[in-house]
């Protein structure tokens, strides 16, 4: 029986090649790109789950409460790890990481800047499980100046198939011994590194300053809880640590805080804290992409229903004869379901091929690292089987039961139009397709507009043609920086050269506690701050609102510049002359405001502008060069030549401020590109479904159209009659899509303190695209029916 069903199915495929191709094409597109979305979703949901003890690993975080501001940090103080292990029996082990600044490492002629470098406690591998390729995991980070490096880093410095353990890497001042090599940290980790330096290296010679310092927040702390621990109860017990060690220090400044714990597996999608080590995901996108993947499959199934139903006129006599000759409804249902499952199987096989061919493209768009092995994982193989069954049975169920339900007498009399099935159901399905397509188009337009707004908004400084170079070296090199900057200024393509130890978009600014003068006395406040020289404001085009810029040598000790947000925050009527000092300083030293700059965005537009305080600091290691837009390549070459004269031991690297600042939106840019691509694909799949419905309608109305043509109706009148039905469907879809899209996009825009708001333009344009698409498709088929010779259609009457 199965063999007979297969033979009949393949015969029908061969008989109607174009319908088979259209069916397979629609399903293939839907399945292929649903698979990509499923890969993306699984990868996002599986962050940090590769760790063997991931269900028991938690990060301790800090919630700091000032009088007028709350700061929620991923960072804690260094003593926290040792304290929780000592004071709380629930803690099986604890460890910490401290990020190291960009550093040049060397081995012979190989020298590279490394950014993914952390100091780590020796207990780190008791909690975080990484595969050791070389070295002893138990003692890898016990000794000062010992390091564990990734496989990629080992190959970069020492070559492939060469043992790295026992070899050394040098910085300007230190020598580090490789004691272990591990597999690369997976990309789906919330904290990625290429090198771990033993924590004892950092603490060497300053034990009291480190392990007993409860005032500095500069490290990530993780705990491994014992099996069966009540996490909520443990979280509440952390109050006792705050009261014992931190409250006596913070109470004098009217600052409160509390500790909390985060499951490590929840960090990537659910954390909303400051100072995350890597880009975070967003759970709202997971829900959106899940819905898109489901609806793409659903639309593909709807297309199959419509296209198969549209074929019914061609297969009506076959069905009638089969019934007359004894075929039962069950046999006919099995036949159609077999064809549907085979169509789905062909589509899945083609989808697997397309996935393999397009993997690199999707990886480029999404920032992921999927491989062929991803497709062949057991979960995905099972998923493909489920997709075959889902699309085959769901997509083929309606046509199977609908077509097998035709009455043979009516069919053989040619009265198929009297048994045309549920027209309202098909129209409902098309409205659903239109609605989904319209929602995705609206969302794509809004996302694109917002991301474009982020790139183009006036940030309060001029980021164009500002080149940044960083000298990672010691204090004794400041004189070289001074001399090099003077040479930079003499270059014809360089307009201004300024220095600072931070810049817009950088994470280098500090948050320090200050005692600030106000009209009601003094208040203690944590304020962002960093050092700049007298040329920094000019290099970045930051205008002064009041007062003056720094001048030499009068401003080397006491002068500061603040932004408008700080003036407003403290209610200063006249900021010039206002004084700030470090809390507890009884020496009489103070800092005095000499200038107020206009507000500019030090951070991305995800963050409102905060109070900012700028010290005077000449010859900082981060150099900003405002260069002429003419002949930029020649200017870069001249800058590099000057660099090599003063720092021949350091590789020359640079970046442009506009690209660096916009990189903060990279994650949303990637998601926006994915969403835009899938919106276009949804429209393509919808068009295929519309072809099916239009083909069915025109087939059913072919004789009516022919009679109208005989009676004098023009082609335009016939086309208009058919097309207006789809315009009504598009209008109904708009009534559904508009409020749904408005709700979700309004919620999404609230993420941004600065956003474009919602205008009617994306809604109107999206509806217009769907109307034009629907009209063009309907006009094509109705025009084709209208130009058919009526005699050919009516000759059997």
TrEMBL record:
The chain crosses the membrane at residues 20-41, 285-305, 341-361, 381-401, 430-448, 673-696, 726-746, 758-781. One of its GO terms (molecular function) is transmembrane transporter activity. Residues 20-238 form the MacB-like periplasmic core domain. Pfam families: FtsX, MacB_PCD. It is found in: Cell membrane. InterPro entries: ABC3_permease_C, MacB_PCD, Macrolide_Exporter_MacB. Keywords: Cell membrane, Membrane, Transmembrane, Transmembrane helix. The keyword Membrane applies. It is a multi-pass membrane protein. Residues 291-407, 677-789 form the ABC3 transporter permease C-terminal domain. This is FtsX-like permease family protein. It comes from Ginsengibacter hankyongi.
């Amino acid at each position: 029986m199965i063999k007979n069903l297969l033979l009949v199915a393949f015969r029908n495929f061969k008989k109607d090649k174009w319908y088979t191709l259209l069916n397979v094409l629609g399903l293939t597109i839907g399945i292929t790109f649903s698979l990509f979305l499923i890969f993306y979703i699984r990868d996002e949901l599986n962050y940090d789950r590769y760790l063997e003890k991931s269900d028991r690993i938690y990060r301790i975080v800090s919630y700091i409460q000032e009088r007028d501001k709350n700061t929620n940090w991923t960072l804690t103080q260094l003593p926290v790890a040792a304290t929780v292990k000592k004071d709380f029996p629930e803690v099986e082990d604890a460890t910490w990481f401290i990020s190291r600044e960009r550093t040049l490492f060397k081995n012979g002629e190989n020298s590279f800047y490394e950014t993914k470098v952390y100091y780590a406690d020796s207990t780190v591998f008791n909690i975080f499980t990484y595969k050791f390729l070389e070295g002893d995991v138990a003692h890898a980070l016990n000794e000062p100046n010992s390091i564990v490096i990734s496989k990629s880093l080992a190959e970069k410095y020492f070559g492939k198939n060469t043992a790295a353990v026992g070899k050394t890497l040098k910085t300007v001042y230190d020598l580090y011994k490789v004691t272990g090599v591990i597999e690369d940290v997976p990309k789906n980790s919330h904290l990625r590194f290429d090198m771990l330096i033993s924590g004892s290296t950092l603490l060497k010679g300053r034990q009291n300053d480190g392990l007993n310092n409860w005032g500095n927040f500069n490290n990530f702390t993780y705990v491994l809880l014992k099996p069966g621990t009540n996490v909520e109860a443990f979280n509440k017990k952390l109050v006792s640590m705050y009261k014992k060690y931190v409250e006596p220090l913070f109470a004098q400044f009217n600052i409160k805080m509390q500790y909390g714990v985060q499951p490590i597996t929840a960090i990537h999608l659910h954390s909303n804290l400051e100072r995350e080590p890597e880009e975070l995901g967003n759970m709202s996108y997971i829900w959106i992409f899940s819905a898109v993947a489901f609806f793409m499959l659903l639309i593909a199934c709807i297309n199959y229903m419509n296209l198969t139903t549209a074929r019914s006129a061609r297969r009506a006599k076959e069905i009638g004869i089969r019934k007359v000759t004894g075929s039962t409804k069950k046999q006919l249902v099995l036949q159609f379901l077999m064809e549907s499952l085979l169509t789905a199987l062909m589509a899945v096989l083609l989808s697997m091929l397309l996935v393999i061919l397009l993997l690199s493209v999707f990886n480029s768009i999404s920032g992921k690292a999927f491989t062929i092995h991803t497709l062949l994982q057991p979960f995905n193989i099972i998923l493909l089987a489920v997709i075959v069954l889902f699309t085959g049975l769901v997509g083929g169920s309606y046509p199977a039961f609908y077509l097998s339900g035709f009455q043979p007498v009516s069919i053989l009399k040619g009265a198929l139009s009297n048994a045309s099935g549920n027209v309202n159901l098909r129209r409902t399905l098309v409205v659903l397709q239109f609605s989904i397509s319209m929602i995705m188009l609206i969302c794509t337009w809004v996302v694109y507009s917002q991301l474009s707004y982020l790139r183009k908004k006036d940030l309060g400084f001029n980021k164009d043609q500002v080149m940044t170079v960083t000298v990672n070296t010691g204090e004794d090199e400041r004189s070289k920086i001074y001399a090099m900057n003077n040479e930079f200024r003499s270059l014809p393509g360089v307009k201004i050269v300024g220095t600072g130890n931070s810049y817009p978009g950088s994470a280098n600014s500090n948050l320090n506690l200050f005692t600030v003068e106000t009209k009601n006395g003094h208040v203690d406040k944590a304020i962002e701050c960093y050092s700049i020289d007298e040329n920094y404001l000019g290099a970045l085009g930051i205008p002064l609102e009041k007062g003056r810029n720094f001048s030499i040598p009068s401003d080397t000790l006491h002068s500061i510049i603040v932004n408008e947000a700080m003036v407003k925050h403290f209610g200063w009527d006249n900021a010039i002359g206002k004084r700030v000092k470090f809390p507890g300083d009884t020496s009489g030293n103070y800092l005095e405001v000499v200038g107020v700059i206009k507000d500019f965005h030090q951070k991305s537009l995800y963050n409102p502008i905060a109070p900012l305080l700028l010290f005077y600091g000449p010859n900082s290691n981060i150099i900003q060069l405002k260069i002429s837009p003419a002949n930029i390549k020649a200017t870069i070459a001249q800058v590099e030549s000057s660099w090599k004269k003063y720092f021949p031991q350091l590789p020359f690297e640079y970046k442009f401020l506009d690209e660096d600042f916009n990189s903060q939106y990279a994650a949303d840019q990637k998601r926006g590109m994915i969403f835009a691509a899938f919106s276009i694909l949804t429209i393509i799949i919808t068009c295929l479904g519309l072809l099916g419905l239009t083909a069915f309608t025109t087939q059913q109305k072919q004789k009516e159209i022919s009679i109208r043509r005989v009676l004098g109706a023009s082609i335009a009148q016939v086309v208009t009659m058919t097309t207006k039905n789809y315009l009504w469907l598009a209008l109904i879809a708009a009534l559904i899509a508009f409020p749904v899209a408005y709700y979700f996009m309004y919620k999404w825009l609230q993420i941004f303190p600065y956003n474009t708001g919602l205008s009617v333009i994306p809604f109107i344009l999206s509806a217009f695209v769907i109307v034009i698409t629907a009209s063009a498709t309907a006009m094509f088929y109705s025009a084709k029916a209208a130009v058919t010779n009526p005699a050919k259609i009516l000759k059997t009457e």
